[in-house]
Please model this.
Amino acid sequence: MTMNEKIILITGASSGIGAETAKKFAAMGAHILLLARNAGRLNQIAKDIEANSGKADVFSVDVGGRCWRLEGGKIARRTN
Model:
């Protein structure tokens, strides 16, 4: 199965199931948007993905209890 040209956003991507899911989808060709609070861990996951020829972008955010959206390639807080 190929995920080429797909973009996948994963919350909780700094550890556990989120990190492993990100790596699996990246290995299938998807561009991964990594979201979690721990920027250091996210950066390490992104390096791991990129070391295996994958694509990943890091967004250090706390999504708990808030509405967020992707706006112009950046995570933006929903205003309404």
